[in-house]
Amino acid sequence: xxxxxxxxxxxxxxxxxxxxxxxxxxxxxxxxxxxxxxxxxxxxxxxxxxxxxxxxxxxxxxxxxxxxxxxxxxxxxxxxxxxxxxxxxxxxxxxxxxxxxxxxxxxxxxxxxxxxxxxxxxxxxxxxxxxxxxxxxxxxxxxxxxxxxxxxxxxxxxxxxxxxxxxxxxxxxxxxxxxxxxxxxxxxxxxxxxxxxxxxxxxxxxxxxxxxxxxxxxxxxxxxxxxxxxxxxxxxxxxxxxxxxxxxxxxxxxxxxxxxxxxxxxxxxxxxxxxxxxxx
Amino acid sequence: xxxxxxxxxxxxxxxxxxxxxxxxxxxxxxxxxxxxxxxxxxxxxxxxxxxxxxxxxxxxxxxxxxxxxxxxxxxxxxxxxxxxxxxxxxxxxxxxxxxxxxxxxxxxxxxxxxxxxxxxxxxxxxxxxxxxxxxxxxxxxxxxxxxxxxxxxxxxxxxxxxxxxxxxxxxxxxxxxxxxxxxxxxxxxxxxxxxxxxxxxxxxxxxxxxxxxxxxxxxxxxxxxxxxxxxxxxxxxxxxxxxxxxxxxxxxxxxxxxxxxxxxxxxxxxxxxxxxxxxx
Lengths: 280, 280
Description:
homodimer, 10 helices, TIM Barrel, 42% helix, alpha/beta, disordered C terminus, eight-stranded parallel β-barrel
């Protein structure tokens, strides 16, 4: 069955709460879900887990932890506490990883932001280990270097993991953030099985909003199949997570959007799985 | 005199045509100018040169050539013709470099865009050599990888110049495009005297427009002085070009904006010239 690796982030079908999303995904034979933490609000974690189990929907990831840099010790400590809570939530719903958007403060220098990020991840390792949940560093596009993440390339993730070890830390590779990188091939190869998450969407031309103008796979210029073959050649065999922030798609009928997601996944992510030169 | 390396791009003071700009810059003791090609329209090149000479304003650069990738041979040939014209214009007004925004077509793969860019630059070398004008490759921020430039890092510029030689090709380093790069230090060092242009502005948080929401130096999070010390340590001694696209500043009184530019240049670009760790 060609959808057996498909997972959808709850934010992608933003109109649906968790009970609705799992019901809709199950009915459409979507076996995986990326659970954003807000979708766990308002009910006990055991109940959210039961919802997933009852519909046979497997959580690919909990989204998201990170945001480690802070201007004060108090702020940094609060971030650590929040990340440990995220790890607890992931364990409670059976997700094997927490996706980290590492954070950045424009008031701090890049080296200071990066130092605080590395220290923050390091401070969460023991808790992650005790739960058997991995910390998945997601490099963010450099257009977010100022205030969302000072970790912007697979290469930087590799550097951090070289330093902290890969027992409890991996990389979540989102095509939206990494597609432009001239060192993509070599750094994915260097990462190997450190890559524990693979997120898909597309880059639109023009892109009109820094956050919420992502495309459905096939609508933009990213050679998603090529990047999939790269991560698979490096050893990745996990779920493929559809993560689309789009005011345009969010305004549509969510059932129709779900149908389009499944169609786009098969056409623009899955087919032509053999490693080959990029299109053209 | 502390302004002796200051140059301003005509687009920065967009409301002023070339005669007005040179008069205003001269009156404010701004000795350099980055001439956008549109500012040469409507009069003979000799007349534009006379305007600069009469006010003792030195052109730091002609902006811009590039946009090499094309979907057809005809389109690629037109780009080459246009780049050769840009080189002619630079020579005519006494500018020693044409800044290249290399281009990208979302319909083409990144490797194909990059191949066409390298071929395009190569095809202009002889003409550049005959005029004594350099081709200054400007790496653009990765948020422009889809349709403005598939050359996004100093590292890529170095790779191209390794391949094509540095006799007639250099690098224009704009802090807006390169500040986030985790390999900035090593690639600027690798570039050395290949860096023939240095452009300044700032990155705003939040940035609300992909093109026209740049900040005046000091308004954003870029450690401009630090990057200046890096390029100077690599051997750069040329003009420092202020290039700001900003609907907000363009809506202001241009005389007041010019005063602020000079003030920001002294405060946030020039002072503390010794190489030191970035701010915290």
